[in-house]
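User: Structure tokens for this complex, please. No commentary.
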Amino acid sequence: MGNAVRRIGVLTSGGDAPGMNSAIRAVARTCVSRGIECVGIRRGFTGLINGDATMLDYAKVSGLSRMGGTMLYSARSDEFRTEAGIQKALNTCKLLGLDGIVGIGGDGTFRGLHDLSKHGIAVVGVPGTIDNDIACSSYTIGYDTACNTAVECIDRLRDTMQSHERCSVVEVMGHRAGHLALYVGLACGATAVLIPEKEVDFEADVIEPIRRARLVGTTHYMVIVAEGVGSSYDVAQRIRDEVALDTRVTVLGHIQRGGAPSARDRVNAAHMGYSAVTLLAEGKSDRVVCRQNDQYLDYDIDEALSMKKGIDEDKYTVMRTLIGQGT
Ligand code: F6P
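Assistant:
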């Protein structure tokens, strides 16, 4: 593609994440500085199918860094998973004269981009999801803010749990992954943390830590459950049944996806958005921008999608050690 890049589309897809707006701003502003036109595609791949687009110039993305959500809206498109849907999206690319597309989202977004690239559209993915479940990247846009939001909520819960000497069971998001739950549990000094990557031994992982805490004088307890583990209401019921504690469930839910992005999310989003446009301008395609060992790199999308992301075993060991479960 080289110097031929004149117009780039940018879209956000899947679950939104704080910092997506910062990434949109970075894509648009990097385009401006390179003399490339930037087109915002609304509602993810649904918008690409329907030709739902707006020009993004320097002024249109002003003040966007600090805003939560995504100004381009987000969606999950079933139609885009069909050949007919992809054909409509390709027609939109031709109609709008798009030389490339930057897609901000998670695995599903990257799969969609890869499908477009198989039809000759230049694409680059930017990892944006609170789940931090993109294997090639140690960090995804929105994760830091979501962790901080969850920690703030749990600190508030602690106050009332402490007053009433209760046990709190808090369900955090993360889809099928436990990264968010583990990080938040560690930050909050939880009594127990349950994540889908590790088989749960209820007696050893929940009941014994509660008993140990009680024996050293603790009168309130904080159990963090990743949504991928199963029902937090079942966890609470077993705690009631086995140790007769007054237990309350809080499902943090979508509150974790909202709010102004943290400085870390804004800065990483800025760099990743910049990198995505730079890659397209250099003629690269079918890549995912990622972060590894304090560096911004890029991966082939297919390779990135085939990688598996395990839990951070060091953090898991620290968490278990601090809870008193040994290593
Ligand atoms: O992928 C982000 C995420 O928030 C997951 O943590 C959660 O499982 C899912 O999206 C919720 O999706 P929806 O907003 O469609 O309910």
